[in-house]
Structures are given as C-alpha cells and as structure tokens.
Amino acid sequence: MNLVYADEQGNLYDHPDWTALGRSGDMVVELMEDELIPLPEGATMVGLPFTRPIGIDPEGNMRPLPGNVQAVGALLPQGFTRLCIPSYMKTDKTQVLPLFGYSAVVWKDGGFYVAAQQSDDPERWNPDNCDRQEVKVGVERLLAKYPENRLYKHLSHCALGYECLTSSNTFLNRWEGAVPVSYSCNAGCFGCISEQPDDSGFPAPQTRMNFKPTVDEVVEIMMEHLKTPESIISFGQGCEGEPSTQAKIIVEAMRIVRSRTDMGYININTNAGLTDHMRAIVDAGLNLMRVSTISALDAHYNAYYKPRAYTLANVEKSLRYATDKGVYTSINYLIFPGVTDREEEIEAMIGFVKRTGLKLIQMRNLNIDPESYLALIPKAQGEIYGMKQMLEIFADELPDVVIGSYTHVPPAPVR
Questions:
Q1: Which residue of 3, 105, 166, 410 could cross-link 178, Cys pair, CB 3.0 to 4.6 Å?
Q2: Residue 46 to residues 70, 73, 103, 195, 380: CA-CA distances in angstroms?
Q3: Where in the numbering of this chain does the Radical SAM core domain appear (predicted)?
Q4: Residue 115 and residue 239: Cα distance in Å, rounded?
Q5: Is 68 helix (H, G, I), strand (E, B) or coil?
Q6: Within 13 Å of residue 110, how many CA atoms lie on the same side as its CB?
Q7: Interval 14-22 mean pLDDT
Q8: Report field, pTM of the whole predicted structure over 0.85
Q9: Residue 124 pLDDT > 90, yes or no?
Q10: Is 156 within a domain?
Q11: What's the first-to-final CA gap in the chain, in angstroms?
Q12: Phi, psi of 167 (to 5 degrees)
C-alpha cells in the first residue's frame, strides 16, 4: 500500500516506493489489510497543513517523506467510522490543524483506500445526494413564504454557505431537518465547532447563531417539516449552543405543534446536563434524544466538555429519565483512535450504556487537532485494543444496542 502525499499546490500523489502507515493516538502503527476499504463516495481528501507524512522508505526505515510535501487525510461522510488517523509529523509544532476528523488514506490496487469501517447506511447522508440547486430553490421558496422568520434566514446561510446537510434538509422538507434555538451553552467544549475563545488557536469552522428565536418562528419550521411519518425535526445543531438552555421556548413550541399534528418525530441533540430542563422537554412529547459524549469517565469528560454547573452524573440521569419515559435514546459518541479504544474507556462506556438503557450508539469521528487533544486528556491506563476490536466488543457486550452513525427512528413494533 503506497504512501499518499500532497505537494505545495495541493496536488495528490502516491509514492510507489514508500509504504503508508497510520496512527493510533500518538503511536505510528502498521495498517492492516482488513482495516482498509475503498474511499467512500462523498469523502473529501485534504492536505494537513504544516505536516510531512511518515512512512516506510525502500530500505525499511520509518521516517518522514523528504521534500516540500504534506500529509493527506480523508474526511469521511456519515456512516463510516475511522480506524486510524494519518501518520505525520508537524513541521511547525505551534500550528494546530483545522477542526476536522482526519482518517488515514493509502493508494493500493489502483485506487484510494481508507482505514475505516462502515457503521451505517451512508446513502441518506451522502453529500452527493443533496442537489445544491434544489436546496437553493427550497431556500427561496421558504424565505418568501416566511419573510419575517429569522430562523429560516439563519438556516439559509448554513445550507448555502456551509452546505450543511441537516439545514439543507430543512429546505428540502426531507428526513432530518434543523431547528436551532440557542446562542448560549452550559459547556465550554475544547473542540467546539461554533465558538472558540480568541486565544484557542482553533478557527471555528461555523458561526453560532446570535439571537433568541420566538416560539412562533420555531413552530413555523417544525410544522413545515413534520409532514411525513418518517420526518425528523431536530433541536441542537452545530451552529448553536446547548438547546436545553432555551427549554421554555422548546416546550411551548412542542406543545403547540403536537396539538396540531402527530406526524413525524421530534428530536433533540443535547449534552443533557440540565436534568430538570431535559425532564420538561421529555414530558412535552419528545420522541428522540441524542446525547453528546466523548467518554463515560469523569476526568476525560470534564477535560473536553468543561461543563458548567453539571456533571456526567446529570447526563446519566437525563438519559435514564428519557429512556424510562419511552424516548428512543442514543449517544453522539465522539471517537478517536488510540483513545476511545482504551481498555478503561470501553469498560466505562459499556457500563454507562447498560445503566441508561439507551438504544443506539452513533459513532462520530471527532473533529480535532490530535496533538492538542492528546495533551488535554488523561493518559491511557490499560491496554489499547484498536478501533476494529473495540467495535466488535461493543457488538458482543451490547447485543440489543444498535451501532450506527446518525439518528434513527425507533423500529416498528412487531405485530
């Protein structure tokens, strides 16, 4: 398998004499054949700035590729779980990589391959299945229909500027659509994609919403989207803070909507730290709940999320309450090779899943600069199993839990 690299102009090459390697945490590792799959449709190849790729030269030495080159990674679409990150060294250790989920990529058998495993059906979230012209037409239609709705104006920027698939769905009236509500957050996530401190070194790839929507604005979007049995409308997007901080708006909007229609599903993507707020939202008729977490260990969770006035115990209580009330619960599990597959992380997460009774684990590749993340969190305490074996352990230990990549609706009852 040939090492892949890019030149200063961003042109991609494979080196016929150098063997590609991967990385797990801070360890350079050999890539196994059973870890590699063809580059999925909808994936994006990117250069890693201020880096050089590490591979094995023709003499069998592991070293950086010489010359004015940079390492290359693949950004995978939803539905695929990365097993290794690219192997590289930084040429400037003061620089941090943009907040993306880089996956190891190689060239073999005449094509690009990535270290990844399919964890869900990728078709629904394949960017190639989102017609940008149709989105533009949808934006124009709904902005004309609701000219005073600031949420539609905000989401139009997300759909057209960022090409966000969830906001695009809002204008296409299909699948899972977005309804952001909050400009504030009760956590200070290290890798937040919508808001970073000026001195963080991370450029946030998205702009957070900066206004408080009215109940009527929220209701208009919900009613417009919830028109089919399989439709999902979701609070909690990458362009907002924690939605439950606006629980009053959410609860009132949900009650109005459910008094008018029982169509579709209402979902919230949340950190679930505000347990009282989450109970009120559940009691208002919530159908689906996805809780973001990076670990079931307090030290790791706290280092990344920097929670304000809540703990991981609050998160667990919220999940347990929702599950007991019949909500289809899941976690948005932010995963990273060499960390998530640590022995202590696996054991803690299995216990967390069993205690909360959640139904689905959404494996999501963490968007982060690896060096910054590894310096932030606790060091490994036990064995590191590898991502592929970790997925197998979850499947064996949690046979009734779905391992996926994005929000699912509950399975139809057996009759």
A1: 166
A2: 10, 6, 10, 23, 29
A3: 180-346
A4: 29
A5: coil
A6: 0
A7: 96
A8: yes
A9: no
A10: yes
A11: 50
A12: -70, -35
